Amino acid sequence: MTVCDAGLSAVMLCGGALALLSSVVGGAAVLRADDPVVAGSAGVAGVPGDAWADERNPVRLAFGAERLDLWSLRVPRAVSVPAAESGVHPIDAFLNVRLRAAGARVAAEADRRTLLRRLTLDLTGLLPTSAELAEFLGDDQPGAWERQVERLLSSPAYGERQARLWLDVVRYADTNGYERDEFRPTMWKYRDYVIRSFNADKPFDRFVLEQLAGDELVAGVPQSEAERDALLATGYLRLGQWDSTAAIFQEEARLQAELQADLTNTTAAAFLGLTMSCCQCHDHKYDPLTQADHYRMRAFFASLERTDELEVSLPSERMEIDRANVAVQAELSQLEQRLKSEGLAESEREALKTRAEELHGQQRKPEHAVGVRDLRDGIPATFVLSQGDAGSPAEEVRPGFPALYWPEDAVIEPSLAGGSGRRLALARWIVSPANPWTARVLVNRLWQQHFGAGLVVTANDFGHTGARPEHQDLLDWLAQEFVRGGWSVKSMHRLLVTSAAYRRSVDVPDLAGAGAVDAENVLWGRQTLRRMDAETLRDCLLQVTGQLRPASGGAPRWPAISEELRHAQPAILEAEEGKDDGRMQGWYADAGVEVRVRSLYLVRKRCLPIPFLQVFDLPDATTSCARRDETIVAPQAIMLLNSPETVSCVEALADELLTGSAESGDWQEAVIGGAFERLYLREPESEEREAARILLGEVLRSGSESGRRHAVAELCRALVNSNEFVFVD
Q1: Does the pLDDT of residue 10 top 50, yes or no?
Q2: Among candidate residues 443, 406, 535, the one with its CA nearest the CA of residue 47
Q3: For the chain, what is the radius of gyration of the CA atoms?
Q4: Is 430 within 8 Å of 28 (Cβ atoms)?
Q5: CB 568 within 8 A of CB 562
Q6: What are the extents of the domains in the chain?
Q7: CB-CB contact of 4 with 50 (8 Å)
């Protein structure tokens, strides 16, 4: 099969003329499989793309065979599950072929405690409780594992976990970045939209359509929750950095070019696994992408108009707001008349003024959010920029897909919402079932979530500079299953975590012998040992010490940050000195209890990441993060030992353990057992009990004023600073 086979020809045809070949059902693009163009038949009059089948595509001819020999350019193949014994999971059937051929040893299934801990962390980012573990251990009926999977997929914490992973990919932050790094007061509404979407198992193709073109799916103000979400989804288009000083220095053209480049590069990486940033200044050095391809894709965003006043209130909400404001206005009118009266005592006049100020504060406005609007007319032209310089425009280009697939301009029809239809055309092409990238990229991200690394290790790069898939047949089969299953993310999770491969132990079987055949674990004969990511570690600390507070979205919380760190940022210092002219450049700390929520709900300020999260490899939110670094460095140990977060958590846990041991004959035995159960979900071994008693005794003999409380807190601190707590096995 070559890159220009009939199947790939169908992809090109779908891409360029998708607006003509698709209908919208529930807002999602659905290709007509019986259309002769989609089916790839030749000889359709007036259909560009026939030339590709005849290998006369001028762009294709310009590339050598080596560049075109790229696995990800081909449509996922129709792959059959390898023959296997009855009851073998499809994923295991694929993996077993190569494991057996290599003679590699396979790890045994992990014990139930390890499995439930792994599954709960993977799907929710939290630890299982002792009660949940006891229920699982006591369930000896068939389907026990599947019941745990369903319970976790139905948990609100599932959407929070998935949102955290997705927000890395789209470089979410609550501030603008650059020199001033101003706060965006309503950016959090996009974050909450993502959480709702994953919890509702919104089909991923719809999820993509809404983020790229939600405003083009809604005519006017939203009439339903679904339409409101479609508008809130366009917050994706506003996530990039914004330099508010550009106008001061007459650099609007430079800023606009940077915004469109960032949006193009992020969209290509997040949804397609393409390194479009590499052809911003010249043709791609490795992949069959031209510089013009970058700007053709950039042209889809030329009609975009930013707004911070996107109205998202529903009709019923607007009516309620109007009714409330009428009542407030009526009382204000009465107060104004009374204030005009002569002979009012000064105290009465002041009371009326105070009440009037209160009423002005009670006047409500329709809900607004950051988002975009789309222009139908007056769309700025897009030019290829020489060397990527905004001041050196060359030839003009129209919106289009990679010319390797479709050398002609994209066929675009105005949207029903009154926009240009440009971004909607791009979104529909991206979610076309025949697109070779989108489904593969998403299922690869989900595999990475559960196995520590993707089937393609470079999750944002499916090109020549990225890694080749070790199991392409499996990747293609998963991508096809994903599309056949209605783009259901939850269904893909079910498929992955019910495999025997997922449930294997991390222990290396016979590493010196047969286990050495797959020392790098590319055949997936065992699970991967992983360190908790920054947010998961903080959330679990709060959870096991009883400090985690429930939250259901809303504005981000601001934890306290030391004065030294705040004043090291000129923008924050300027705000604290009252010199930011209300631009919200500062740091606005909340009360202690308010910030004891999941880390997802903490502020993401680009110029000043939260120190505890930063030291555990929090990404910087300037570019798409496909996979976080997983470092093991000394500052992490220092932070986990001495940070205010750790100290407050272990002291809170110490108080709970001491309260629970009050009626015990041996308080030390009670707190040791309780600490191990809370932190490790198991009883301590005899050697561990003895070591814990020694630690408690040494601290008590040190003469600390807080006595037992300090000793138990030190024990909890030691247990938290262990591989068993910090790692996912």
Answers
A1: no
A2: 406
A3: 29
A4: no
A5: no
A6: 6-73, 90-152+438-517, 161-310+370-430, 313-366, 531-629, 639-728
A7: no
Q: Are 127 and 540 in contact (CB under 8 A)?
A: yes
Residue 557 has pLDDT above 60, yes or no: yes
- Is pLDDT at 42 greater than 70 in this prediction? no
The C-alpha atoms of residue 701 and residue 436 are separated, in whole angstroms, by 67
**Nearest-angstrom CA–CA distance, 135 and 332:** 60
Residue 538: how many CA atoms within 13 Å on its side-chain side?
A: 26
Amino acid in the structure at residue 420: S
| Residue written as token pair 């707001």 | 321
Q: Helices 90-102 and 489-497 sit at what angle, rounded to 10 degrees?
A: 40
> pLDDT digits over 680-704, tens only?
999 999 999 999 999 999 999 877 6
- Whether residue 663 has pLDDT greater than 50: yes
The residue with greater pLDDT, 360 or 699, is: 699
Between the CA atoms of 434, 437, 439 and 443, what dihedral angle is there, to the nearest 10 degrees?
Answer: 160
* 3-class SS of residue 394: strand
Residue 485: φ, ψ to 5°: -85, 15
Please choose, from the candidates 396, 410, 585, the residue with its C-alpha nearest in 3D space to the C-alpha of residue 22. Answer: 410
Half-sphere exposure of 625 (CA within 13 A, CB side): 18
In terms of residues, how long is the chain?
729
Residue located via tokens 């009851």: 87
**Per-residue buried b or exposed e for 389-419, using 16+ beta carbons within 10 Å of the residue's own CB:** ebeebeeebbbbbbbbbbbeebbbeebebeb
The pLDDT of residue 252: 87
CA 671 remoteness from chain centre? 38
Instruction: Centre a 10 Å sphere on the Cβ of residue 697 and count the other Cβ atoms it contains.
Output: 12
| Contact criterion met (CB below 8 Å) for 336 and 316 | no
Task: Name 183's bridge partners.
Answer: 175
Enumerate the H helices of 397-437 as residue ranges.
422-430
Q: How far is CA 204 from the centre of its chain?
A: 13
Cα–Cα distance measured from residue 474 to residue 94, given in angstroms and rounded to the nearest whole number: 6
**Which positions ≥6 away from 431 have C-beta within 8 Å?**
28, 29, 204, 205, 208, 209, 438, 487
Q: Do the Cβ atoms of 534 and 640 come closer than 8 Å?
A: no
Give burial (CB, 10 Å; 0-12/13-18/19+) of 90. Answer: middle
Q: What pLDDT is attached to residue 363?
A: 80
Quick: pLDDT tens for 463-500: 999 999 989 999 999 999 999 999 999 999 999 999 99
pLDDT of residue 55: 53
Locate the DSSP E strands across 450-551: 530-531
